[in-house]
């Protein structure tokens, strides 16, 4: 079994402090959020909004209070690794998407996220399949795209 006392080489490699010298102190570690924490919070908020979810809905899904989720998004509180993984899973994104800035000039997956979410909710509420097909045809016409063959009534 190895001894837990430092070896002779370790003891000899560290010179003793000079007479009257103050002991070396490390800078105080702070738990305050950094600029990176604020950026992560902003990305959580952007992706949550793009998914059309409220703070309360996401908080319930990840096991946090809506107040705590607000603090994450505002950059007031740091997000623990396990919670970050739960948030990524709930938003159906990779953890890396929460940690890294999108590439400059990258087009967001949903450029008009709130409008897209509203449109998706309204579309899902349409019970009549013919009305849904007509709406898809209208959207394709307005976008200048040809309607897919399977979308025809």
Automatic annotation (TrEMBL):
Top-level taxon of the source organism: Bacteria
Report the SUPFAM superfamilies cross-referenced here: lambda repressor-like DNA-binding domains
- Gene3D superfamilies named in the record: lambda repressor-like DNA-binding domains
InterPro entries in alphabetical order: Cro/C1-type_HTH, Lambda_DNA-bd_dom_sf
Q: Where is the HTH cro/C1-type domain?
A: 44-98
PROSITE patterns, per this entry? HTH_CROC1
Q: What is this protein called?
A: XRE family transcriptional regulator
Q: Which organism is it from?
A: Dankookia rubra
């Amino acid at each position: 079994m190895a001894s837990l006392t430092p070896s002779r080489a370790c003891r000899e490699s560290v010179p003793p402090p000079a007479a009257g010298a103050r002991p070396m102190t490390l800078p105080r570690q702070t738990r305050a959020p950094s600029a990176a924490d604020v950026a992560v919070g902003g990305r959580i908020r952007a992706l949550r909004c793009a998914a059309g979810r409220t703070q309360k809905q996401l908080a319930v899904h990840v096991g946090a209070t809506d107040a705590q989720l607000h603090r994450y998004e505002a950059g007031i509180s740091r997000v623990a690794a396990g919670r970050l993984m739960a948030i990524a899973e709930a938003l159906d994104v990779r953890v890396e998407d929460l940690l890294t800035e999108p590439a400059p000039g990258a087009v967001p997956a949903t450029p008009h996220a709130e409008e897209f979410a509203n449109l998706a909710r309204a579309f899902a509420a349409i019970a009549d399949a013919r009305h849904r097909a007509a709406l898809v045809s209208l959207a394709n016409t307005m976008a200048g795209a040809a309607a897919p063959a399977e979308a025809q009534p």
